[in-house]
Amino acid sequence: MTTEVYLVRHGETMFNQLNKVQGWCDAPLTVKGIDDLKRTADALAQVHFDNMYSSDLKRAIDTVHLIKNANVVSNIGKIRKLPEFREVFFGSFEGDDIDQTWDLIAQTAGMGHETNVQKIINHLGLREFRAATKKADPRHLAEDMPELDERMANAIKVLAKITKNERRVLVVSHGDFIKTLAIKYWNQSDGQHDIIFPNNGSVTRGLLHDDGKFEIVDYNLDPEDL
C-alpha cells in the first residue's frame, strides 16, 4: 500500500518573529502564526486522514491540534509525537540572533562577513554549510549532513512502519527539516543544491511506497493551491 504523506510546516513562532535561531529550542506560535494556520486548517478540513502525527516540539504539536480540530471528515485519536521529525539542530547557536550566527558561520568558512544565509549556502554548498555550522559551534553539537542524512532515513523508516495500513497521513514538521527532505527526495531537486525555504503553514506532499521508498511530489504548496 502506498501512503500519501502531507508534510506541514508549523506556524510562525515568536523566535521566527524575533529573528532568532530555532532548531530544537522552542517558542510559542504568534497570533499571525495561528491566523495563517487557520488557512491551512480550512484547506485541509475536508481531506480525510487516517492519522495525524507531529514532531515532539511544542510549536508542531500546537499546529497539528489546530489542524485536527478543524478537520470534519477524519476520526483522529491521540497524536503520536515523532522526535525523528524535529527541526535541524543548531547546537550552541539555539536561541541566538540569526544574523550574528550566519555571520560567524561565514567567517568560519573563510567567506568574511555575510549575514545572508542564501548567499552563504550558494557559495559553500549545503553540505559544506552544515559542516561550517558544526565547526563554528563552540561545542560542535550542530547537526551536519551525515547526521541529518541518518536522521532523515530513520524518520522515513519509522513513518513507514507506523503507517503500514494507512492510506493518507499528516505530519507536522519544520522548515529546515522539510527542505532537507525535499533536497533528497523531491524529483525536481538534484540532491546537491539548495531550494527555497518552505513557508509557515505550507504543505509538502509525499508518497511512501510499500517497499519503504519515499518520494516528494509537491513542495511548499500554499493552502489555497490544495
From TrEMBL:
One of its GO terms (biological process) is regulation of pentose-phosphate shunt. It holds the Pfam family His_Phos_1. GO terms for cellular component: cytosol. InterPro entries: His_Pase_superF_clade-1, His_PPase_superfam, PG/BPGM_mutase_AS, Phosphoglycerate_Mutase. The active site is at 10 (tele-phosphohistidine intermediate), 87 (proton donor/acceptor). Gene3D superfamilies: Phosphoglycerate mutase-like (3.40.50.1240). Substrate binds at residues 9-16, 59. One of its GO terms (molecular function) is fructose-2,6-bisphosphate 2-phosphatase activity. The keyword NAD does not apply. SMART domains: PGAM. Keywords: Hydrolase. This is Phosphoglycerate mutase. It comes from Lactobacillus pasteurii DSM 23907 = CRBIP 24.76.
